[in-house]
Amino acid sequence: LHFSMQNLFVRPRVRDGDIIGIESSTPRETITGPIIKDKVAFTESFEYRFVRTPVNSLPPLERDMKFEGLTFFSQLDVKLNSRQSMTATFSLYPQKLNYLGLNTFTPQPSTPDLHQRGYMASLQHRLTINSDSLLLSQFSYKRFDADLTANSTAPYELLVETTSGGFWNRQARESEHTEWQEIYQLERHGFLGSHELKFGTDYVHDNYDGRTALLPVTIVGVSNFPLEQINFGPASRFGVRENSIAWFVADKWQPIQRLTIDLGLRFDRDSITDSVNPAPRTGFALMLTKDAKTVLKGGAGLFYDRVPLNVASFPLLPDRTITMFSPAGAILSSNTFINAVPGELRNPRSVGWNVELDRQLTSALVVRAGFQERNTARDFALDPLANVGLLSLSNNGHSFYREFQVTGQYKVRRGTLNASYVRSK
Predict the structure, then answer these.
(1) Whole-prediction pTM
(2) Which residues contact 59 (CB under 8 A, 6 or more apart)?
C-alpha cells in the first residue's frame, strides 16, 4: 500500500507589502494498493486547486482572476482469470473560474464567470484468446455541464480604453457523451511475410442541450458617442443529437526483415451529415543499413473530422441586428443577420503525409530530419452576407500546415541533451 501527499503549503497573496488572503493552494494526495492480493488493486487520487492570477495593471484588490476546482480519480483493476482482466475508472472534475478573460482593458465587472461540472466513468474488458490474439471491449460515459454568468447587470459597452457593464453572453450548456468500442487483434500469420491484423468498431452517441441569451453590445468612440450597436434576438434553447459509428481494419505487414508497412482503412458515418467517409492510410519504416542505425520512416493518410455540435446548433442561436452610427450619433445603416446554414454540412477532410530520416551517428548521438504537410478542406467558415441578411455558415474553409524539423539527441552520463530546429508555415 502506497500513500503520498504533495503541495501542503499555501502561498499568500501580497498586495502593496501586505498579506491579503491566499494566492494559491494546490494540495494533492494519492493512495494505491491491493484489495485482494494478485486479484484486485485500486488507485485513488484527489487534488484541490485554488489559484489567483493577477493582472498587474489593474488596482491591487481588483486584479485577480480566480480558479477553484477539484479533481477526483479512482481506478479498480481486476484479474478475473488467467485470460481475462477488467479495469473500471471514475473521475469527477467541478471547476469555477471567476473573472474569466480579465485584462488591462476589461475590468472585473465586465468579465464573466464560468462554472463547469462533469464526471466520467469507463469500463474496459480484455480477453486474451491466445499468445497473440486479444479482444478489447470498452464502454465509457461522460457528462459535462457549463454555465456562463455575468458580474454586472449594466449595459455592456466597449470604450476606447476600457470596457464597462456586464458581460453580454449568458449561457447554460449540458452535454453527454456515450461511447462503445470493440477491437480484435488476430494472431500473427504468414503470407508474403508476416501480418498482424486488427479489426474494430466504435459507436458514439452525443447529446448537447443549452440556453443562450445575448444582450446588446455598444461600441463607443472617442467623442463618447456610439459608433456601432449590436442587438440580438430573444434567448434561444437548442438541443442536438448525434450518432456516429466507425469501422476500421489495420495490418502491420513485414515482407522482409528490414521493412515494416502499416496499412489501414477506416469508415466513418455520423447522423448530422448522413454520409459514409472512407479514410485510407499507410505508413512504413525501412532500415537502410544492416546495423539498424539508419531508418527511413514515412506515412500518408486521409482523415475526416466529426461535425462539432456547436456548429450543428448554429441556426438555433439568436439572430442579430447591427446598427452603425455617425460620430455625431446619427444612424447610418442597420442590417439584420439571420443565422443560417444554406447548404448541407459536410465532414472536414484532411490529407496528411510525412517523411523522416533517423541516424545514430555514435552510441550517444542520434540525429533526425523530417518533413510533414497537412491540407484541410471543407473547414467551417462564417460569412456575413449583408445583401441577403444572412450570417452564413458553410464548409468553404481551407487551411494548410507545413513543417521541416531537425532534431539531435545526445546522452550525457545519466542525462540527455535535446536540441531541435523547426521551420513551419
Answers:
(1) 0.82
(2) none
